[in-house]
């Protein structure tokens, strides 16, 4: 039995055998071949193996998940046999004498771009299918060993160096009971995705991947941040009890689903959910969210080979707005850079990506990318209650430029006779200390603030949010952070604006009493944190929390603030 400590990233307890997920390199290089007949045979062999795999996955999916899900694999089989794809690949090998992986990859990419540019959502989805099928055949051609996380079909705990957000999005909750990684922090994007999938997770363990063997029984305790490898029977029993108690607590919270969020002394605040994909909206609604407080649109740009076009984006935004049925939806414009890369953007490597060319900085430079997103958003605006938010704003000039571009696109759409809502609030994320300090000036021009503490804390403390070695400096309760938060909220209220928070701190039960006391209007968090937060707020008096917050602001260390909060009698 071995205990490893990491960072609790998503609550709950999972007990299952380990499944090590390691990433292959799909890079394809162009190689000339002398014997094209042999190359064609190699292609045929890879196709046959892929067919056999798909047949058995289809069968298993049919048994376990039903006909509808199995259809996906039936359509993959059709692609594998489609002469429209295969003939040009075979021709390329025969005529241009290139290797099979190059011929396949190049042809498939042409189809993928073509599908992505189609108007119909159905054909756009075909692009994703084509991408999956191509990867499957490439695995055989390149001799890679890899299991797509979406295909895991027995109960496991995934163990990895790190998980990309798109890996995390593909995990099937039915089988993946939990995950644990070597690197990452509570606010790394895979951890955020784990919370939206409601899968227990422990990240930042440094070496769990090296310590564990495939099939070892492991426990992931996402409440405490521990991983236990090969536990003895007594420990398993103890953790089963802990898991069951947590599940009972969740059931109790569910009773609050339809209730408003009100403090003990009757003050209403808004509890919203953070989402990364349109599918996450169900989680927000299931957990009684009153709004979407942060839609991280960058996930729409990830896991593909080129920019999502206006139609792809329009469909996604429209879906979210419609599913929220008129409740507010704060959509954040593209925040790429930092720990979120887009391989097809081909950006130069930076020394300090979190301090570099990211988010609105990139969008103001690549106005082609930005305008496409703004157009899609404006077109979708008539389907619900849209609010647009710019990330990583450091200066008023940046905000003014971003807003001017938005207005320009709006005017163009109206001139084209396309309807746009007249009622779109435009706000900014406060993630940079300079913006928090100058919030009184920003408040005169923006409709709202949403405090992004994940970044605000890392920039204020100069401690990389991804680096577990400096995680001791990542202090949400440090009075310096609380003072910045207060400045932002007070500045908003002075100008009659609202202030929300969409960093992870908003759903943190130690921070919530302080934030309520500081006057935060909207708390946006992982869907699974909404009901525990509602339960907690209903037991707190806003007036008392105002006093508590005033005391916290005068403390000198984070520890003293924590002690103050712990002393609250509920
Ligand atoms: C934040 O910085 O707090 C935030 C919500 O944005 P992200 O975590 O996506 O950087
Ligand atoms: Mg951020």
Automatic annotation (TrEMBL):
InterPro entries from the xrefs? PEP-util_enz_mobile_dom, PEP-utilizing_PTS_enzyme, PEP_util_AS, PEP_util_C, PEP_util_CS, Phosphohistidine_dom_sf, PTS_EI, PTS_EI-like
Ranges where the PEP-utilising enzyme mobile domain occurs: 153-225
Give GO terms: molecular function aspect only: phosphoenolpyruvate-protein phosphotransferase activity
Q: Which top EC class applies here?
A: transferase
Its main localization is cytoplasm
- Where is the protein situated, by its record's location annotation? Cytoplasm
> Main role?
General (non sugar-specific) component of the phosphoenolpyruvate-dependent sugar phosphotransferase system (sugar PTS). This major carbohydrate active-transport system catalyzes the phosphorylation of incoming sugar substrates concomitantly with their translocation across the cell membrane. Enzyme I transfers the phosphoryl group from phosphoenolpyruvate (PEP) to the phosphoryl carrier protein (HPr).
Record protein name field? Phosphoenolpyruvate-protein phosphotransferase
């Amino acid at each position: 039995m071995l205990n490893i400590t990491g960072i609790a990233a998503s609550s709950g307890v999972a007990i299952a055998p380990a499944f090590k997920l390691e990433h292959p390199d799909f890079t394809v290089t162009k190689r000339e071949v002398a014997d094209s007949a042999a190359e064609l045979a190699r292609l045929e062999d890879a196709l046959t193996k892929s067919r056999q795999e798909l047949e058995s996955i289809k069968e298993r999916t049919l048994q376990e998940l039903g006909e509808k899900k199995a259809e996906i694999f039936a359509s993959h089989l059709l692609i594998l046999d489609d002469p429209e794809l295969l003939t040009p690949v075979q021709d390329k090998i025969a005529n241009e004498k290139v290797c099979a992986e190059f011929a396949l990859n190049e042809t498939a990419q042409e189809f993928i771009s073509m599908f992505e540019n189609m108007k119909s959502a159905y054909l756009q989805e075909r692009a994703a299918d084509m991408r999956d099928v191509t990867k499957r055949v490439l695995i055989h051609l390149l001799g890679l060993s890899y299991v797509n996380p979406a295909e895991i079909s027995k109960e496991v705990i995934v163990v990895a160096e790190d998980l990309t957000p798109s890996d995390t999005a593909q995990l099937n909750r039915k089988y993946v009971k939990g995950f644990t990684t070597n690197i990452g922090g509570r606010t790394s994007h895979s951890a955020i995705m784990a919370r939206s999938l409601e899968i227990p997770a422990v990240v930042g363990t440094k070496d769990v991947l090296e310590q564990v063997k495939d099939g070892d029984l492991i426990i992931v305790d996402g409440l405490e941040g521990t991983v236990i490898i090969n536990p003895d029977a007594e420990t398993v029993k103890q953790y089963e009890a802990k898991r069951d108690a947590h599940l009972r607590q969740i059931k109790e919270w569910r009773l609050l689903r339809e209730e408003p969020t009100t403090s003990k002394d009757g003050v209403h605040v808004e509890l919203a959910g953070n989402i990364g994909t349109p599918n996450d909206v169900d989680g927000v609604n299931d957990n009684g969210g009153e709004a979407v407080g942060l839609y991280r649109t960058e996930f729409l740009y990830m896991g593909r080979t080129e920019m999502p076009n206006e139609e792809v984006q329009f469909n996604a935004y429209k879906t979210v707005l419609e599913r929220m049925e008129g409740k507010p939806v704060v959509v954040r414009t593209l925040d790429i850079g930092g720990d979120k890369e887009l391989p097809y953007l081909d950006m130069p490597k930076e020394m300090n990506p979190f301090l570099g060319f990211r988010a609105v900085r990139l969008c103001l430079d690549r106005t082609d990318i930005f305008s496409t997103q703004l157009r899609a958003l404006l077109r979708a605006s008539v389907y619900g209650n849209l609010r647009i938010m710019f990330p990583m704003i450091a200066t008023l000039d940046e905000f003014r430029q971003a807003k001017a571009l938005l207005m320009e696109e709006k005017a163009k759409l109206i001139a084209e006779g396309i309807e746009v809502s007249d009622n779109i609030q435009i706000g900014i994320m406060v993630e940079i200390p300079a913006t928090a300090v100058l919030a009184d000036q920003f408040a005169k021009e923006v409709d709202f603030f949403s405090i992004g503490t994940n970044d605000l804390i890392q920039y204020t403390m100069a401690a990389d949010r991804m680096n577990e070695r400096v995680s001791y400096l990542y202090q949400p309760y440090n009075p310096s952070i609380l003072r910045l938060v207060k400045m932002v909220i007070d500045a908003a209220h002075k100008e009659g604006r609202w202030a929300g928070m969409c960093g992870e701190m908003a759903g943190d039960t130690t921070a919530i009493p302080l934030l309520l006391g500081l006057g935060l209007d909207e708390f946006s968090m992982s869907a699974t944190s909404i009901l525990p937060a509602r339960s907690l707020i209903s037991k707190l008096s806003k007036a008392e929390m105002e006093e508590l917050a005033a005391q916290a602001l005068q403390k000198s260390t984070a520890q003293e603030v924590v002690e103050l909060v712990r002393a609250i009698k509920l």
